[in-house]
């Protein structure tokens, strides 16, 4: 995926089993926990491209969050701050070759950033 592509959508849920059944029945999404991501079932849309996760709803995570691919999270977060946004979560590892972070734009929207390659991306 290229810089600026939307790569992932996290949906906050309170009941994983109910949410898994709901989204599978509603959209036909294939939803499963992958090794290393227990407690965070990931969904795949029928197009084989779109996907995301069902994540526990929590403080600061009460609305769906899109993740955008960037070449450098560090550089992007600097631009966020220079443009009047705020860093909500610093660069955090997902794997040895991938990271994520979140920021809040000047209008209060929380957006995720993704940098790197995961095993899921290699398939």
Summarize the structure.
This protein has 123 residues and is α+β, with helices and mostly antiparallel strands. The protein is built from three helices and eight strands; from the N terminus they run βαββββαβββα. The chain has a single domain (6-122), classed as 2,3-Dihydroxybiphenyl 1,2-Dioxygenase, domain 1, CATH 3.10.180.
Give the N-terminus to C-terminus distance in angstroms.
Answer: 13 Å
CATH architecture: Roll
Shape: globular
Structural class: alpha+beta
Q: What is the third-level CATH name, the topology?
A: 2,3-Dihydroxybiphenyl 1,2-Dioxygenase, domain 1
Helix content: 10-25%
Uncertain runs are none
Protein name: VOC domain-containing protein
Domain VOC: 5-116
Organism: Barrientosiimonas humi
Pfam family, one: Glyoxalase
Features:
123 residues; 2,3-Dihydroxybiphenyl 1,2-Dioxygenase, domain 1; eight-stranded mixed beta sheet; Anthracycline_SecMetBiosynth; 8 strands; VOC_core; 3 helices; alpha+beta; Glyas_Bleomycin-R_OHBP_Dase
Write a structural description.
It comes from Barrientosiimonas humi. It holds the Pfam family Glyoxalase. This is VOC domain-containing protein. InterPro entries: Anthracycline_SecMetBiosynth, Glyas_Bleomycin-R_OHBP_Dase, Glyas_Fos-R_dOase_dom, VOC_core. This protein is an alpha+beta fold. It has helices at 16-27, 73-82, 119-122; strands at residues 6-13, 30-32, 42-44, 51-56, 65-69, 86-95, 98-104, 110-116. It has a single domain, classed as 2,3-Dihydroxybiphenyl 1,2-Dioxygenase, domain 1, CATH 3.10.180.10. It contains three helices and eight strands. It has an eight-stranded mixed sheet with strand order 2-3-4-1-5-8-7-6, with helices on one face. A hairpin with a 6-residue loop joins strand 3 and strand 4 (51-56). It is globular.
């Amino acid at each position: 995926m290229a810089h600026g592509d939307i790569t992932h959508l996290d949906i906050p849920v309170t009941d994983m089993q109910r949410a898994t059944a709901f989204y599978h029945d509603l959209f036909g999404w294939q939803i499963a926990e992958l090794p290393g991501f227990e407690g965070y079932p990931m969904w795949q849309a029928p197009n084989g491209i779109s996907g995301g996760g069902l994540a526990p709803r929590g403080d600061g995570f009460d609305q769906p969050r899109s993740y955008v691919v960037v070449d450098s999270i560090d550089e992007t977060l600097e631009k966020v701050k220079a443009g009047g946004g705020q860093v909500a979560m610093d660069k955090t590892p997902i794997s040895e070759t991938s990271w994520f972070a979140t920021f809040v734009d000047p209008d209060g929207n929380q957006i995720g950033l993704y940098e790197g390659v995961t095993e899921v991306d290699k398939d």
